[in-house]
Design goal:
Order of helices and strands: HHHEEHEEEE
CATH topology: Nuclear Transport Factor 2, Chain: A
Shape: globular
Number of strands: 6
Number of helices: 4
Helix content: 25-40%
Largest sheet: 4 strands, antiparallel
Distance between the termini: 35 Å
CATH class: Alpha Beta
Length: about 190
């Protein structure tokens, strides 16, 4: 509930700073700071959602509800990379498929923690008017089974961030605002 309120307040903040858009849709430094903050908040939300979905004590109905919320953070057709210390290839899955696979892991206990979340590339304007940047996270994964199966790794992941202008109607008035969506999550390194 607290996260929902924080998200709504963040969205209202981004809506409130939408005033003063220039004709060429450049992002002012103040607006960019607010957008960066919202992007990092969405990445942190995703981290929380993944922890809940992967937790074996989470009831299936709750995990499904959280998956729905998590999917709303992404652009259409985004993929999430998965790696393992036991293989060289990296598999990429559509967001919902990734979440479903996470629920089905054969461990009795799963702990997933993201840390050191930060931008590695500044937002750059694209020909289609959107801005694109990259956020890096480190993910610590631990799976433990009662029969002695234990697996741990740390994965460095790059998350593409899309910032685009959207419109909504508030009290009969069309209002433009910048929104942040997550794109592909690519594995760049997996270590013990």
């Amino acid at each position: 509930m607290k996260k929902s309120i924080l998200y709504i307040v963040s969205l209202i903040f981004v809506l409130s700073i939408q005033q003063g858009f220039s004709q060429d849709d450049n992002i002012s430094p103040e607006r960019k700071k607010a957008i960066d903050s919202l992007a990092l908040e969405k990445v942190r939300d995703l981290s929380t959602y993944i922890s809940i979905i992967g937790n074996k004590e989470t009831p299936f109905s709750e995990a499904n509800r959280v998956m729905d919320r998590a999917e709303e953070l992404f652009v259409e057709d985004a993929e999430i990379g998965v790696s393992s210390l036991s293989r060289e290839e990296i598999n990429n899955y559509k967001v919902r498929e990734y979440f479903n696979r996470l629920i089905q892991l054969s461990y009795d206990r799963v702990t997933i923690r993201w840390y050191n979340i930060h931008y590695i590339s500044d937002l750059e304007r694209q020909p289609d008017g959107r801005y694109v940047g990259v956020v890096t996270v480190y993910q610590r994964f631990e799976g433990v089974s009662d029969d002695g199966l234990n697996y741990r790794d740390t994965t460095k992941k790059d998350i593409t961030i899309y910032v685009e202008k959207k419109k909504t109607q508030i009290r009969g008035r069309i209002v433009e605002f910048w929104d942040v969506l997550l794109g592909d999550i690519r594995v760049t390194e997996t270590t013990t």
